[in-house]
Design brief:
five-stranded parallel beta sheet, 10 strands, binds zinc ion
């Protein structure tokens, strides 16, 4: 477990109180896939990882979206659908083990009711639309299992959309099915998540969607030039017009140019090492550890994350920004003072120090996301 030895920030009672007394939605936490890789009981304290019940309680986190993450390698396979069901089973198992601590949340009303009861809500978001497999019946199926947003694609173009990481640009945005799916998601009440998709796919999704969309875990390209996985200022302005919300990703490589450049170089060096040493060689297997020792990642800081929030607020106002940490999804790359789910009071203190009012902080913690979610619920109820 991460123990923050030296906090660069002094957290006041007020910040702790704000964390404990309000709904905190973090729209992207990769617990289910963490369990798939190495099962552990997160209803109790855990040695590794960024999330467990005691730390969530300490941080005031009470509505983390559980990411149903499907690797792009399964994109054109029925196994993507099976894995999605399995990962949802894991979340149900967490609730089954500790119904006095957790409950799945299917709606904004349930988040509010469960918060009032002191339960941690676990709403579900699907990262990668590949489990839909071109069949709208699967959209309905996953809605019924609790999925409330779908990230259209992940690291490669799938049957729905192009990916920011995949330069082939197969569809030049959304596929014909992707366009149909976006309209149907509006009607069913599943939020459209534009994190990970290409710029063209983002603009096409905005054009089609009748409701505000989300970026569940993205940061700003203004701080990471050339990194298309993050959103540029024009996209932020378009998102504002759409009424949507960007939930800032905490990962260091998402928030500072230095860490972003580091990660690009690391990928290139890794590729080179794989070619030179052979992917299955023992030398290559120890590459990562050795590399990290010799070239440590320059961690971002809490302040870098706050800079992203400030930038969105300056561009389009306070109504369109929130938090999508990517805890349990970005490995050992989290900023100082934001290492795990116990750290929300640090973030709140940082906002207080920068002059944010209580009301604005509450908007960032959940108010903005709740407004967008409710707008989607209302639209679906009428269509
Ligand atoms: Zn992701």
């Amino acid at each position: 477990m991460y123990v923050s030895s030296v906090l660069a920030i002094t957290v006041t009672d007020k910040a702790n109180k704000l964390a404990q007394e309000n709904i905190i939605i973090d729209s992207h936490i990769d617990v289910p896939y963490r369990l798939e890789e190495k099962w552990v009981d997160v209803t109790k304290a855990t040695e590794d990882g960024d999330f467990d019940y005691p730390r969530a309680k300490q941080g005031g986190l009470n509505a983390p979206f559980m990411s149903i993450y499907i690797p792009a390698s399964l994109d054109n396979s029925a196994n993507s659908t099976k894995l999605a069901d399995k990962l949802i089973d894991y979340v149900e198992a967490i609730v089954g083990r500790a119904p006095d601590k957790f409950a799945i949340a299917n709606s904004t009303t349930e988040v509010e009711q469960q918060f009032a009861k002191g339960l941690i809500s676990l709403p579900l978001g699907m990262e990668n639309g590949s489990p839909i497999q071109g069949d709208l019946a699967n959209l309905q199926h996953f809605y019924e299992r609790g999925i409330r947003y779908i990230t259209l694609a992940h690291s490669q173009a799938n049957h729905i959309a192009d990916s920011s990481y995949d330069l082939r640009r197969k569809w030049k945005g959304l596929s014909p099915f992707g366009k149909e799916l976006v309209a149907e998601m509006n009607k069913v009440g599943v939020l459209i998540d534009i994190s990970h998709v290409s710029d063209a796919a983002f603009y096409q999704a905005l054009e089609i969607s009748k409701t505000p969309v989300i970026a569940s875990h993205s940061s700003l390209r203004a701080f990471t030039p050339g990194f298309e996985r993050n959103m540029d200022d024009d996209m932020i302005k378009a998102l504002g017009k759409n009424g949507g919300v960007i939930q800032i990703n905490f990962g260091s490589t998402f928030v500072t140019k230095r860490a972003n450049v580091w990660s690009k170089k690391r990928s290139a060096d890794q590729k080179k090492a794989a070619e030179e040493l052979g992917k299955d060689s023992d030398e290559f297997k120890s590459f990562s550890t050795k590399y990290a020792e010799e070239n440590p990642l320059p961690y971002a800081t809490l302040d870098s994350v706050l800079d992203h929030i400030d930038h969105v607020v300056k561009l389009i106002g306070i109504d369109h920004v929130g938090i999508g940490s990517d805890f349990d999804g970005v490995g050992d790359s989290l900023p100082t003072d934001l290492k795990d789910v116990s750290a929300y009071p640090n973030l709140i203190q940082g906002l207080l120090n920068r002059g944010y009012s209580d009301a604005h902080i509450i908007q960032i913690l959940s108010g903005n996301f709740m407004r967008v979610w409710k707008a989607n619920e209302d639209y679906a109820a009428k269509h």
